[in-house]
Design goal:
Length: about 350
């Protein structure tokens, strides 16, 4: 995949595709949100609550919110979640009505579930640029190949780079095909996972040892749940390995999901989500050494948290980058890290 997919010949194509799209009445970024879990609530409040210190409504406006359970977007449930109300006119009941109900959307913030790209990925990207909150979806070859054809000027896939330090540098090396090895290890407290089988059963066997006073002292301090290609872990831990998926996307065609190595560890000694990444370049003729970078990200969390503390402001900061640079008005398309 050429993640900087951008070609002037496509401008004519995209213009013909968007001829019927109304001209925006303002330069505010029109934001749609898919999903009203913790991150969706975090973003929605900062678009609506004028009293909030992180209010971003001066440069962006909430166009719509969709949630699988629409009742959470109204009344007491909504007030409890975000301390303000979502205008009735901004509630999208049926995702199939998105284009007719909200014809102008600049960026759709997807924080729902990876399956949204299987069922609605093409219509989302045809309608708007998409800020990806579930990058594990792209471990599905068919989905990724299908959506790559739609990342033309004006329709980008934005990936948050917050947890992936050096994302743009990995992206550059991936584009230049100078990467030789990419590996990522993610460590989390044992109760911070939300897994699919067979990993869930393996994790339960480990946590049972930790939770039982009779076996706790003999239990290992950590347990490796997975060690292999990132493509294999994404469907087994779709809520826990988003950073792995982002790294696989950034590493480009030569490595990608199949040759990017992912290691997932349940560690009873930590109260944080810890990400270690090692990048190695290809051999340099005439030299025995190679380019290498190692990074560690330590993100504090409560023992049962799936999403750690720094994730929320980091995700918001990436959205603000899209808005502040006016990227939504001049997007060249492609896969971009923000």
């Amino acid at each position: 995949m050429n993640v900087n997919f951008c070609c002037s010949s496509f401008r004519t194509v995209v213009n013909s595709l968007r001829m019927d799209r109304p001209i925006p009445s303002s330069t505010k970024c029109k934001v749609g949100i898919l999903g009203f879990g913790l991150i969706g609530q975090y973003i929605a409040r900062r678009l609506l609550d004028t009293a909030h210190p992180q209010f971003i409504g001066d440069t962006a406006e909430l166009t719509f919110v969709w949630n699988r359970t629409a009742s959470k977007l109204r009344g007491p449930a909504c007030l409890e979640a975000i301390d303000c109300e979502i205008p009735e006119s901004s509630i999208l009941e049926d995702l199939d009505n998105m284009e007719t109900q909200f014809p102008i959307v600049d960026v759709i913030v997807e924080v729902a579930h990876p399956n949204i790209y299987v069922t609605h990925g093409e219509r989302l990207l045809r309608h708007s640029s998409v800020y990806v909150g579930s990058p594990t979806a792209f471990a599905n070859r068919e989905v990724f190949e299908r959506l790559k054809t739609l990342v033309i000027p004006g329709h980008a896939l934005y990936f948050p780079s917050g947890a992936l330090w050096g994302a743009t540098d990995v992206l550059k090396m991936g584009n230049m095909k100078t990467l030789a090895q990419v590996s990522i290890t993610m460590r989390k407290p044992p109760h911070s996972f939300r897994l699919e089988e067979p990993l869930q059963s393996a994790l339960k066997a480990y946590t049972d040892l930790l939770d039982n006073p009779e076996t706790r002292d003999d239990a290992p301090s950590s347990f490796t749940l997975y060690d292999g290609p990132v493509r294999g872990i994404c469907p087994l831990a779709p809520n826990n390995v988003n950073t792995m998926a982002c790294l696989a996307v950034a590493s480009g065609e030569e490595l990608g999901f199949d040759l990017c190595r992912g290691i997932l560890v349940a560690d009873a000694t930590v109260a944080a989500h810890i990400i270690d990444i090692t990048i190695k370049g290809k051999p340099i003729p005439g030299r025995d050494d190679v380019f290498e970078v190692t990074t560690r990200r330590f993100n504090p969390c409560d023992p049962n948290q799936v999403t750690a503390t720094a994730t929320y402001p980091s995700f918001l900061a990436s959205l603000k980058n899209i808005i502040a640079k006016g990227e939504f008005l001049k997007s060249e398309g492609g896969v971009q890290f923000v």
